[in-house]
Structure formats: structure tokens, C-alpha cells
Amino acid sequence: EEETGGISGRWVILGILVLAVAATAFEWNYMRMHRAPFIPLREAIAESFGRTSKVKIDGGRNKRGPMTLRIVIDVPFDPTAATEKPQTLDALQRLEKLAQDNVELKDYEFIQIYLVQVVPEGTPKRLEHRRPITDLTAGKPLDLVEPESPSDSQR
Fold it and tell me: How do beta strands 55-60 and 68-74 pair?
């Protein structure tokens, strides 16, 4: 039989495997470099809040917005409840202090913290706290603004 001159199946499979390994290595290195500046903060949060706390830390700019340090952490209490305000304030203050101690805040304009209580088979309860880094570094006290309830906005 005559050979058609195409690429053998072995070379195709080998090429696919090499491409998969290269893509995996690229993504692993990219994520490692992207997360590296936040490793000390992640470890400090784990030490302060417990190793079982799910934490996501990200820093950067969305589209043309300001440079923002974002921290998302699962908490065991409802951060939106008025009765939990002392716990919410404590968590926010601790996270801001840990960020000051473990991240170069001069690179950012805002700090944004999300406290999330995961409700099994329900809607997560989430509180977003955002303030300028200049307020944080100037030592201005944390002010937890009460979210506007739907009935207040209809008046």
C-alpha cells in the first residue's frame, strides 16, 4: 500500500499532550504570579479567622475604574443583621488591619471587603464595605453605613 504522506496519529497525540502540558504550566504560573502578592495576607487571615474560612483576595482595576484591593470571606454570622453589627465591625476592622500589615496599600485607591454568610439552599447574605485607602491609612474610624431597606426607598 502507498503512504498518503499525512501526519501519523502518534504525532498528533503527542502534539496534543505537549499543548495540554504547556497550557497547564502557563496557567499555573500566571495564577501563582497573580496571587503571590496576597499570600502573606491570605496566611494572616487564615491565622486570624481560622483555616476553614474561605477567602478570596484580588487586586486590580475593573475596566477604567480605580485600583481596588478586594477581599471576600465567608463568615458564620449574618453580616446584614443589625443584631450582628458588633461582629461585623470587628471582622471588618480585623481585615483592614491585616491588609495594612500585609499588603502594599500605596498601590491601591480603594479597599473593598465582602462578608458573606452562605445559607444552605438559600440566598447568601452579603455585606459590601468599600472605602478609600487614604481613609484607612489616615486612621479614620470605620463607619458601617446601614444599607437602605426597600421600604425606605419607596417613601
Answer: antiparallel
Residue 5 has pLDDT above 80, yes or no: no
- Dihedral angle over CA of 134, 135, 140, 145, nearest 10: -170
pLDDT tens digits for range 83-94: 999 999 999 999
86 vs 89: CA distance, rounded Å: 5
- DSSP for 93-134 reads HHHHHHHHHHS-GGG-SEEEEEEEEPPTTSPPEEEEEEEEHH
Pairing of strands 110-117, 125-132: antiparallel
* Alpha-carbon span 112 to 132, nearest angstrom: 9
Domain residue spans of the chain: 38-144
pTM recorded for the entire structure:
0.75
> Are the C-beta atoms of 56 and 69 separated by less than 8 Å?
no
